[in-house]
Amino acid sequence: MRAEEEGRIGPGRLALAIGLFAIGFLSLRTAVDFDYGWHLANGRHLLDGVLLGGRDVYSWTTAGAPWVAHEWLTEAAMAALHDALGPTAVSLAAALVVAVGFGLVAARLRGRGFGRATTLATIGLGFAGTLVSMGVRPQLLELLFLGATLLFVDGWLGGRIGRGGVWALAGAGALLWANTHGSFLLLPGVLGIATVSALLGRGRRWPEMAGATVIAALVPLLNPWGVTLYGFAGQSLTSDITGRLVQEWRPPDPLATSFLPFTLTLILVGIGLVAILRLRSGEPRARLVFDLIVAAAFLALALRSGRHVMLFGVAAAPLLAAGWSTLGARAAGLLGRRRSTAAPERPTRRPIDPRGRDIVDAVVFVAVTAALVAGGLLMVGPAAQRRATDATYPTGLLSALDEAVAADPDPHLFNEYTWGGFLIAARPGVRVFIDGRSEVYGDAQLARYAAIAEGGPDAPPTLDDLAVDLVLVRADSPLARALLEAGGWSELARDAVGVLLARAGAHA
């Protein structure tokens, strides 16, 4: 279609806009992430000294242990939004973060000269790769920050951002990132790759980015815990026991259904890389080197932990887009050959009035957006949030837990790992055995939890040694069966999700 026929919006812009809205819609999740509760609790403690006190206050197994609330700024915002407008508002905010993050990826690809169809296909597949980690959680900020960082580097490599701008943006970005999510070391890492790429590309401006890298590495010291934050940032990634026991930290299985988008992305990135190297296009050397190193670095992260698979499609977006373009060109070539042997095309119809197309495009955009918003509110509205919470957590057992705690105000509770965060928010007076803050508990406590949860012959005596007097686990858990069969434990209450057990006579 000729430009004069497209109107101000045009089908390409319309499709891209609707695609981003669709990404936001498909990102909607109810606020039942296993860590959601303790994130809320952290945010609520912003002003009373608990959040920034540096000591654990939520568990009885690690009470007083060092604790870095590295996402305190995000958690404060989450708690304020949740308490003011409910979990629906937090769900909508999380979906918006994802949509804006892929909007930045789209802007980067369009700035590289990729067409709208290729851009839409790239962000679509990249988004599909994030679904394995999708939830209402601070981790989604990684998509936003990484997308912004890569767009920022492209601007510098293209000469659109000068030394002052690159240093100011690196400092501001590092300060924000360090206080909203523990992955802040990705920023100096990416900027360091940009420095090396500029140097290898024989660019004279590489000292500018080297300075930005140093700034991005040092500015995070302006956090409530100083240098301690740096050690925390890599703790979970380097813990073998966390990788074995916590599902999101396990290496991905490329053949599993949930990771098929990642596998397809990897294949297309390979096709794009071969095409770029074979055609020897006019791609600037520094930018090509940057694309290659960044893609390789984030591929290594993704293969190390399923948690980081969501970042690979963003980091490798230009190579992924090149792969789509290559396939598109092959398809167009085949289609062109078929058309050459077909009947002559019909005469071109009279051009469409651009003003009329603008009206049609606007109506379509408004209608699709309204449908997505209405559907989204049904998916994450208050009723949906309540249903999801009741289906995920033992809400029917809270009153029985309250009665048990009334008899013993400071019980030693053993709980499901994935329920710890929920209990921290729902019953702040009850200290948990464990929760999603694996870095607080350490490998020894994680291993001890796993051994108990398996319900083996050593589980009852281990609970005895720890003086555990309440157990709150899934209704079908092997531990519940083992304790009831071994004797010495009684069932206080049960719902569709879990069961509450008490040591015989302790809470009669």
Biggest sheet: strands side by side, in what order?
1-2-4-3
The SSE string, one letter per element, is HHHHHHHHHHHHHHHHHHHEHHHEHEE
**What is the total tally of β strands?**
4
Give the count of helical stretches.
23
Low-confidence stretches: 1-6
Distance between the termini: 78 Å
Gross morphology is globular
Helical residue percent band: 55-70%
Overall mean pLDDT score? 88
Major sheet description: 4 strands, mixed
Structural class: mainly alpha
| Percentage of residues in strands | under 5%
Radius of gyration: 26 Å
What does this structure look like?
With 508 residues, the protein is mainly alpha-helical. Among the domains are: 132-328, no CATH class; 393-503. The protein is built from 23 helices and 4 strands. A 4-stranded mixed β-sheet has the order 1-2-4-3, sandwiched between helices. Residues 1-6 have low confidence and may be disordered.
Briefly characterize the structure.
With 508 residues, the chain is mainly α.
Which helices and strands, and how do they pair?
Blueprint (H helix, E strand, L loop, with lengths): L2 H4 L3 H17 L9 H9 L27 H14 L1 H25 L4 H15 L10 H17 L5 H16 L7 H15 L5 H13 L9 H6 L6 H6 L14 H20 L5 H20 L4 H7 L1 H24 L13 H27 L1 H11 L5 H10 L5 E3 L4 H7 L11 H16 L5 H7 L4 E5 L3 H9 L2 E6 L3 E6 L5
Parallel strand pairs: 1-2
Antiparallel strand pairs: 2-4, 3-4
Helix pairs in contact: 2-5, 2-6, 2-17, 3-4, 3-20, 4-5, 5-6, 5-7, 6-13, 6-15, 6-16, 7-8, 7-9, 7-15, 8-10, 9-10, 9-14, 13-16, 14-15
